[in-house]
């Protein structure tokens, strides 16, 4: 006799739970299909996937809404052609309104061209400056452009009074893109570029060692390194072997690597002791702390093997740009049909046959100029570019990286983050950088 009553109670509990859920989820909301193209083999791809899903859940859970984003995840791997075919497949079969991703500039390059043909916005976190020159009206960069850090790096060089530096960069779109801007900033700061050295992303250990032995013969011992984590790991482990992580040397790394340091293995961190880096400063807030806890629980449940992985700035930007897209879709609505078909002709290509998005131009225009308070702080997209603000300068010591100061366009280097001080002037003083620990725990004079 007990069993049916219990079943009934469970059923009641279940129903009330559904009602609570349905209150927040508008069952008749218009579905907005969105493609999400990520490299799901990478930690970063997995981090972004969790953030996109959580942004969608959070956005609709506490407001009335007429529309709802339906994400369609596709794994692009590292391949540009795979990313492009994922985009075409999403447009053809799902008629997506917008595409989030892909991660790599070489992939984004293709996907933006496709978005342009069908007038669908592509919101990609690629930092490559090369993409800016495309000036596509359909491209929204949801990360700080890599060029934004050049002045911050030059300011560090200036603060320590170094007269010569050598640039070592990854021979890829990413590395090559940043070099001209860094070179220009060094020139402006009267710093001599002693050497420019390209390292192939597929360089073997002995090649790295050989290249480092060459760099060792340079007069300068100050190196600016522009590499992504994959190559950087092998590179820094080799610098240690070449005896270049010792007293007298100084290494500065660029922001993508600095932001991804916690996905780098511990042997590499060991080899990077004393390295300085710049990275986007994210102000802690109650919302962010709360989100980080939820994210951690969920991510580690979904990816139990990645128990060391922490949320990073790219994840927060993925969250904020998904929220921005959801907000924009809510404001412009979902049109049906999604695409305007062209006149039928026998020789149309797949993309031409698809036509152009009916959401153009309202959706693109809204996202290309968008301001909000996000988890990452002020999330401001202007003319399709996420606007940079303060950089944090960090020093790799022990198992992590510790802040030694800030750099802002307005005030230069400062110990504390300065806000709206009309009397302050741009300065690059070494004393404003707190206690740097150098390679070999030495001090450069
Ligand atoms: C749910 O969506 C429909 C269709 O867009 C809209 O008419 C209705 O007002 C929405 N309801 C709520 C509670 O947001
Ligand atoms: C400086 O850079 C060039 C070009 O990468 C390279 O061929 C040369 O060997 C470098 N010089 C030194 C001393 O490392
Ligand atoms: C397709 O055919 C039309 C004539 O039917 C022609 O004008 C046009 O150039 C062709 N386009 C391509 C891409 O071949």
Structure report:
The chain is an alpha/beta fold and 445 residues long. 41% of the residues lie in helices and 21% in strands. It has helices spanning 2-24, 43-61, 80-94, 105-118, 150-159, 173-188, 205-216, 229-241, 255-259, 266-271, 286-302, 313-332, 350-354, 362-368, and strands spanning 30-38, 67-75, 98-100, 122-124, 139-141, 164-170, 192-199, 222-226, 250-253, 276-280, 339-340, 356-357, 370-374, 377-382, 385-386, 391-397, 400-408, 412-414. Helix 3 packs parallel to helix 4 and helix 7 (205-216) crosses helix 8. The structure holds 2-acetamido-2-deoxy-beta-D-glucopyranose (3 copies). One 2-acetamido-2-deoxy-beta-D-glucopyranose (NAG) is lined by residues 26, 28-30, 64-66.
CATH fold-type name of the largest domain: Rossmann fold
> What general form does the structure show?
globular
Gross CATH architecture of the largest domain: 3-Layer(aba) Sandwich
Point out poorly predicted stretches.
Answer: 14-23
In this structure, how is the largest beta sheet organized?
8 strands, mixed
- Report the portion of residues in β strands: 15-25%
Give the N-terminus to C-terminus distance in angstroms: 86 Å
Q: How many beta strands in the DSSP annotation?
A: 18
Strand order of the largest sheet: 7-6-8-9-10-16-17-18
Please state the structural category: alpha/beta
CATH superfamily of the largest domain: Response regulator
| Quaternary assembly | single chain
Mean pLDDT: 91
> For the record, what CATH class of the largest domain applies?
Alpha Beta
Main location: membrane
InterPro entries: ANF_lig-bd_rcpt, GABAb_receptor_plant_PBP1, Ionotropic_Glu_rcpt, Peripla_BP_I
Keywords: Membrane, Signal, Transmembrane, Transmembrane helix
Pfam families: ANF_receptor (PF01094)
């Amino acid at each position: 006799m007990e069993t049916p009553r219990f079943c009934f109670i469970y059923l009641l509990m279940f129903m009330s739970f559904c009602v609570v859920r349905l209150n927040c989820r508008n069952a008749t909301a218009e579905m907005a299909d969105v493609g999400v193209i990520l490299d799901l083999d990478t930690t970063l791809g997995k981090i972004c996937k969790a953030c996109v899903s959580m942004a969608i859940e959070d956005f609709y859970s506490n407001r009335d809404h007429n529309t709802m984003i339906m994400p369609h995840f596709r794994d692009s791997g590292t391949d540009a052609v795979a990313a492009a075919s994922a985009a075409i497949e999403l447009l053809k079969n799902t008629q997506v309104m917008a595409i989030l991703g892909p991660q790599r500039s070489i992939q984004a390059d293709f996907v933006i061209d496709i978005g342009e043909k069908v007038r669908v916005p592509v919101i990609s976190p690629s930092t490559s400056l090369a993409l800016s020159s495309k000036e596509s009206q359909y491209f929204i960069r949801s990360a700080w452009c890599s060029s934004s850090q050049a002045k911050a790096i030059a300011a560090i060089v200036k603060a320590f009074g170094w007269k010569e530096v050598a640039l070592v960069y990854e021979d890829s779109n990413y590395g090559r893109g940043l070099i001209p801007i860094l070179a220009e900033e060094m020139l402006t700061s009267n710093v001599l570029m002693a050497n420019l050295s390209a390292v192939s992303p597929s360089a073997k250990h002995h090649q790295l060692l050989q290249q480092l032995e060459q760099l060792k013969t340079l007069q300068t011992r100050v190196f600016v390194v522009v590499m992504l984590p994959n190559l950087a790991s092998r590179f820094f482990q080799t610098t240690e072997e070449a005896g270049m992580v010792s007293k007298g040397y100084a290494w500065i790394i660029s922001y993508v690597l600095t932001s991804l340091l916690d996905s780098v293995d511990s042997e590499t961190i060991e080899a990077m002791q004393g390295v300085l880096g710049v990275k986007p400063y994210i102000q802690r807030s109650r919302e962010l702390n709360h989100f980080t806890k939820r994210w951690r629980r969920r991510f580690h449940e979904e990816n139990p093997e990645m128990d060391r992985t922490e949320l990073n700035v790219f994840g927060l930007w993925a969250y904020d740009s998904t929220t921005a897209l959801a907000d924009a879709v809510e404001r412009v609505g979902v049109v049906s049909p999604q695409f305007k078909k062209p006149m039928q002709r026998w020789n149309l290509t797949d993309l031409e046959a698809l036509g152009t998005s009916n959401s153009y131009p309202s959706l693109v225009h809204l996202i290309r100029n968008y301001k909000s308070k996000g988890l990452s702080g002020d999330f401001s997209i202007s003319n399709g570019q996420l606007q940079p603000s303060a950089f944090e300068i960090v020093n790799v010591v022990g198992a992590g990286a510790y802040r030694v100061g800030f750099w802002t366009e307005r005030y230069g280097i400062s110990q504390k983050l300065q806000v709206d001080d009309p009397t302050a002037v741009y300065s690059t003083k070494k004393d404003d950088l707190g206690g740097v620990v150098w390679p070999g725990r030495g001090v450069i004079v």
